[in-house]
Design a protein that fits this description.
The complex is a heterodimer of chains A (265) and B (401). Chain A contains ten helices and eight strands. Chain A has an eight-stranded mixed sheet, sandwiched between helices. The longest helix of chain A has 17 residues. Chain A has 265 residues and is α+β, with helices and mostly antiparallel strands. In chain B, 30% of the residues lie in helices and 21% in strands. Chain B is built from eleven helices and 16 strands. In chain B, strands 1, 2, 5, 6, 7, 9, 10, 11, 12, 15 and 16 form an eleven-stranded mixed sheet that branches. In chain B, strands 3-4-8 form a three-stranded mixed sheet, with no helix packed on it. The chains are: A alpha+beta (265), B alpha/beta (401). The interface between A and B is large, with 70 and 72 residues.
């Protein structure tokens, strides 16, 4: 690989898992403390009440972290393009769809069908914030965060504009639990920009590389990582929490991203 | 508004749908103004409707080395890759540039959910997947791109885009950025969607499926006919393929309106169209042919006809090709890109098959029957659930700006 690194600036970060209510909690964990876990599951408070009732868990998780990341960036949400990555989308919806289709296909709920599209989170988000910019929904198995970062990063630099990247997966439901191996919810989001601004948190250089063995994450991050296909993002988030360093993320089976991150004071 | 882009060469392309296998079959279907829709006989309890079903997939398992990926969607992908020497062209590009310098960006809405549905119909006594169905990589939205990457031996960026019915139009945009930033030297793009219970009964639950063959832009249209397809294109920089057609522009936008119905004012669609024109640095009057999204749903066609009238001069010709193939959902962007490229290559402007009583909202821009005329610049519209819009612009090599 000889391509130049993609230089991106992080303007906002969001994290949610059953142990982490936000990015500050991750910083506490890495400092050896035990932060208070979130009191309840994400509620997607950014949605109007009718949409909030209809939105499935994976959408609420993705919107929670998107809301956290964009709040810090101060960007105008109506014009901020977004990329929503997920390995499996909303697993309760998949389980409901497949179980209902096996039993009584004519009873399928129209709302749950439209919630089953992989771009449900992108759809709900753009409706909630009135965003008419480009929105996308991507997937790449356990490389979903890395592949999403490459997609979002190429939009940032290709179009010279800030982009919201969110990556979220929920717990496997029904017989899919043992198939997908998703044992715990995890979501995270970044606002990525092409230039440094007053809200810049860190500079990230992303370079394509043949996959290198990832240095092991410390516990409990390593366990979280194995419990969710979205959680490999923790390697990058840990750099941000620690103030800098480098790591590798998978972007495809034979393609890695070498990440070099420097915190900007 | 976006900056103008450097056109990319489409050095190879192919399609497989109910219209047939490969470009010749699609051209013959278009020339003959014949629908490929048939009464639905898919699945254990077929929904009474019409579908665009690809013949022969049941008897075409994947070759042994790929057997672990076997399912209807991947069979269709494999069949599609064999047509028009497409796979050979990709392998040549891989040899030319290196496996890590060729990206794979595929769009799908169904992926292999049909295989997951089947697993749920045949659960073990303990409620789990039967051993034969325990193939985790198959029960995921990325199954198509992961299979095709393995089948083609590609080691570059590999991404699934799944934004419902705009999925495989957006892949052209992602690939263009990867090429422009110098991350790759070529990109395989495309889309594959296959018939499955989720989409048939899902669209039925939304009362969007017609009981008759779909009638895009007909005054009495009453819904879509679902189809399946695999369509692919190989994108390279212009100098690598001087005589080949060009991708000259694209635009992406969101409606910010509703999860399953379009913005009645078509503002999102208009933004995507204008962005495509800006990237191509052309005026609406330079577009000879618009391949419309034209699903035959009441709302889509109403909104899209109004956008067409608002943005384009009376000389622009437009039609939907969903009457031939059905709505191939996540594959529609790529299939209709190929139909637009065929129209350009053969001076054949496809008629809007299926409409017998044109909706009075549809003005003089509509080509209700086939027309023989040169098409230098073609536009293809794709609009999906969640208000996700993508428009693509293609041109002959000689005239690309």
């Amino acid at each position: 690989m000889t391509s130049l690194p993609l230089r991106l600036y992080i303007e906002g970060v969001g994290v949610w898992s059953p142990q982490l209510a936000g990015f500050p909690a991750l910083c506490e964990v890495l400092a050896g403390a035990m932060p208070t876990p979130p009191a309840k599951a994400p509620t997607a408070s950014i949605l109007p009440p009718a949409e909030r009732r209809r939105a499935p868990a994976c959408v609420r998780l993705a919107l929670e972290v998107a809301q956290q990341a964009t709040a810090a960036s101060g960007r105008e949400l109506a014009t901020l393009p977004c990329v929503f990555a997920s390995s499996h989308g909303d697993q309760a919806t998949t389980d409901y769809m497949c179980a209902t289709l096996a039993r009584e296909p004519l009873e399928l709920s129209p709302t749950r069908f439209h919630n089953s599209v992989h771009n449900a989170a992108a759809g709900y988000w753009t409706i909630a914030v009135g965003c008419r910019a480009a929105s996308s929904a991507v997937s790449a198995g356990r490389a979903s965060f890395g592949a999403g970062l490459l997609e979002a990063g190429s939009q940032v630099l290709g179009n010279d504009e800030a982009v919201l990247l969110a990556c979220a997966d929920t717990v496997g439901v029904g017989p899919m639990y043992e198939v997908t191996g998703c044992r715990e919810a995890f979501g995270c989001a970044l606002v990525l920009a092409p230039q440094r601004s007053a809200n810049t948190l860190a500079r990230v250089d992303v370079q394509l590389t043949s996959v290198l063995p990832e240095p092991p994450l410390p516990e409990p991050l390593a366990s979280w990582c194995s419990n969710s296909p979205s959680a490999p993002a923790l390697a990058l988030l840990a750099l941000l929490a620690r103030g800098g360093g480098h790591c590798q993320l998978a972007a495809a089976p034979a393609l890695g991203l070498h990440i070099d991150l420097e915190r900007i004071p | 508004m976006p900056d103008p882009m450097t056109p990319l060469a489409i050095s190879a392309y192919t399609a497989t749908s109910a219209m047939g296998r490969g470009l010749h079959a699609h051209l013959a279907s278009l020339r003959g103004e014949r629908t490929a829709l048939q009464p639905n006989d898919f699945g254990p309890t077929p929904l009474p409707c019409w579908v665009g079903r690809v013949a022969g997939l049941e008897d075409a398992p994947l070759p042994a080395p790929h057997a672990g990926w076997d399912c209807r969607n991947n069979r269709l992908a494999w069949l599609g890759l064999q047509q028009d020497d497409f796979m050979s062209r990709v392998l040549e590009a891989r040899a030319r540039y290196g496996a890590d310098r060729v990206a794979l960006v595929l769009g799908t809405s169904t992926a292999s959910i049909g295989a997951t549905e089947e697993a749920y119909r045949t659960l073990d006594a303990d409620g789990g997947f039967a051993d034969a169905m325990l193939r985790p990589e198959l029960h995921a939205p990325h199954s198509l791109a992961a299979f095709v990457a393995a089948a083609l031996g590609l080691e570059g960026p590999c991404l699934t885009i799944s934004t419902a019915c705009s999925s495989s139009a957006k892949v052209f945009a992602s690939a263009e950025r990867l090429l422009r930033l110098g991350l790759v030297d070529a990109a395989v793009v495309g889309g594959v969607d296959s018939l499955c219970a989720s989409v048939l009964f899902g669209f039925n639950a939304l009362e969007l499926v017609s009981r008759t063959p779909c009638r895009p832009f007909d005054a009495d249209r009453d819904g879509i006919s679902i189809g399946e397809a695999a369509a692919f294109a190989l994108l390279e920089r212009g100098m690598a393929a001087p005589g080949r057609p060009r991708l000259i522009g694209y635009g992406e936008s969101s409606d910010a309106h509703h999860m399953s119905t379009p913005d009645p004012n078509g503002r999102g669609a208009e933004l995507a169209l204008r962005a495509a024109l800006e990237r191509a640095a052309i005026e609406p009057a330079q577009v000879d042919y618009v391949n419309l999204h034209g699903t035959a749903s009441i709302k889509n066609d109403e909104v899209e006809a109004a956008v067409l009238e608002r943005l384009f001069p009376i000389t622009t010709r437009a039609s939907s090709s969903k009457g031939y193939s059905g709505h191939t959902l996540g594959a529609a962007g790529a299939l209709e890109a190929v139909i637009s490229l065929l129209a350009m290559a053969h001076d054949l402007l496809p008629g809007n098959l299926g409409a017998t009583t044109p909706d009075p909202r549809c003005g003089p821009r509509f080509a209700w029957r086939n027309e023989s005329r040169p098409i230098t610049v073609a536009l293809s519209n794709s609009f999906g659930f969640g208000g996700n819009n993508a428009c693509l612009l293609f041109a002959h090599a000689g005239v690309a700006p």
